[in-house]
Amino acid sequence: MEKVINCFKRRPDAVTRLICFPWAGGGSMHYARWGNILNSSIEVFAVKLPGRESRAREPFFQNMEQIVDEVIEVLLPMLKEKPFALFGHSFGAFTSFAVADALKKRHNLKPVHIFLSGASAPYSETRINTPKRSELSDEDFLKWMISIGGTPPELLANPDVLKLFLPALKADLHVVENYRCDKPEGPILCCPVTCFDGKDDVPHDLEAWKSFTSGEFTVRMLDGAHFYLKDSGNEKIILDYVTKQLETSEMDYL
To answer: What is the pTM of this model?
Structure first.
């Protein structure tokens, strides 16, 4: 499991597991440290994808199915043990949805809550009409990265670091840009779904996410652009909200 999951603090007595999926090009560390912040009733599993961190020598995944298959193969026994929730930002929102969809169809397993951030629903027109960034030249790609914010200036100024960082980012964008998903004819899930987004980010079709659940649907807009969740104040708002929601779901589950 350690190859695919980063867990800073194992909590065998936790009531709920929070499975977190990285943004495009991202690693697991941002989410893994949440395990040190959230209370003892929540165990945090941060997903590690190939081509970065301890998996740097592995080839990048080429499609969403590869991500879904690996995550489910590794986590299935644990997901059967106790309630779980999913969190994903941007690219991670799509992988969260794809994993939830597959778990329901293949194993009839459902999360108690899904937290989605910074992304339109995969079947929305807004997402389908988004330009394919992974096909840009490195120069134009960097201009786009600067425009959305959130990338440390020191990284952008270091060509050697960029050579390591850009391939992972482009590989993840290739996956999501080629991910196709039809709008569900009816709700796939019945759990609550919460969408977070930055007020200054490009507009996302958040409402489109509502159609895949019959459960409660909530939108929370926070100050900032695409990487608003890196702000410490916003992070506290998010984690307080996640904690409250999962504690509520624990009571419902019991």
So the answer is: 0.92
